[in-house]
Design a protein that fits this description.
Length: 243
């Protein structure tokens, strides 16, 4: 799988985003994702695609006994170790699909904005179920299918350069989508809502929460953020491994 986050130009632009500079407070979805976290005291937590490690640090600061953050970008892990180190956190250079997923190893598996780079979600769901203890929680944030099915993942603009609408095409054709993000070509994987939710149900999970995240009122003051109310960008899901 191509890893854009190792590209210097892309990574430099990513570092300028509010979620990179401000951490969880600068992430538009955090006010909705945070309440979905289970109790973390004395729990073992696995973060798939940990990026800068913000969620790893959150888990550690809320009492997690052990936290493992995986990412396939050495640049990301370098920032995670610099910004979000903690005695209970281990960062490891490893892709989501390559991790060994030991049986009944983790109490909570989380993933934020990484699963839309994965082609075979069912395989990952199976592995996550395998590595969770019975009753363990799988909490993730994935780009919403309406967003990943967007044509070039961009608005249709009027003559003044203002967004007219968000075009969606080939919704029921899952798979590779070529788009641009931060001025660089990016490869993502489109999955329908049925694939995501039924994939969980068919692989040993029960759904506890499903939410289409909206920006907080505070973030709506930022340029362009109000347009995020016109179509969903992120899908938050909390599922529990059936006993």
């Amino acid at each position: 799988m191509k890893n854009e986050y190792e590209n210097d130009a892309f990574f430099d632009r990513y570092a300028q985003m509010s979620r990179s500079r401000e951490g969880l407070a600068g992430a538009g979805e955090w006010h909705r994702l945070r309440p979905l976290f289970p109790a973390l005291e004395s729990r073992r937590v696995l973060d798939l695609g940990c990026g800068y490690g913000w969620h790893c640090k959150y888990a550690a600061e809320h009492g997690a006994a052990e936290v493992l953050g995986l990412d396939m970008s050495a640049k990301m892990l370098g920032e995670a170790k610099r910004r979000n180190s903690h005695k209970t956190i281990t960062y490891r250079l490893c892709g989501i699909e390559e991790y060994e997923y030991p049986e009944k190893r983790w109490d909570c598996v989380l993933s934020n904005l990484a699963l839309h780079y994965i082609e075979d979600l069912d395989a990952v769901f199976q592995k996550v179920w395998h590595t969770l203890v019975p009753g363990g929680v799988f909490l993730f944030n994935i780009e919403h299918p309406v967003f990943t099915a967007g044509v070039a993942q961009d608005w249709e603009y009027d003559e003044q350069g203002k967004p007219r609408h968000w075009p969606v095409d080939d919704y029921f054709r899952p798979g590779l989508r070529l788009t641009r993000f931060l001025g660089c070509p990016v490869e993502k994987q489109h999955h329908t809502l049925t694939q995501i939710l039924m994939g969980l149900l068919e692989n040993g999970f029960e759904l506890e929460a499903v939410e289409e995240a909206q920006p907080s009122a505070e973030l709506l003051e930022q340029p362009g953020m109000a347009d995020e109310l016109r179509r969903p960008m992120m899908l938050l899901v909390r599922a529990r491994a059936r006993k």
